[in-house]
Amino acid sequence: QVQLVESGGGLVQHGGSLRLSCAASGNIFSINTMAWYRHTPGKAPELVASITSGGMTYYADSVKGRFTISRVNAKNTVYLQMNSLKPEDTADYYCKLSNGWGKDAMTYWGKGTLVTVSS
Fold first, then answer.
1. Which of 52, 54, 76, 109 would be a feasible disulfide site paired with 24, CB 3.0-4.6 Å?
2. How far out from the chain centre does Cα 97 lie?
3. 61 in the Ramachandran plot: left (φ > 0), alpha (ψ -120 to 50) or beta?
4. Coil, strand, or helix at residue 4?
5. Burial class (CB in 10 A: 0-12, 13-18, 19+), 42
6. Is the dihedral of CA 71, 76, 82, 87 positive or negative?
């Protein structure tokens, strides 16, 4: 059974920084993709950033230059360093694991961690 546990959310002032962590445990395949999504009520969930086990990254335009996704494969852990935070970054942040490759990949989600950016 695969589990994802996020940590690192909290309250921060406009312009501040936070680092989110997501640790995956269980039967994790060597080829996988880990990603961060965020969701606020009334809006569609947004893919914030993703990183493959080979290190390829993707960022949403809204966070480019401010957020950095990284991972430690040996620990099955992904990080999201968030700098220059804005009130519009306030959301529940969820970690997603696509375990495997392509259409055969199994998807798992963490329970989320709340990030609140005050103005």
1. 76
2. 9
3. alpha
4. strand
5. exposed
6. positive
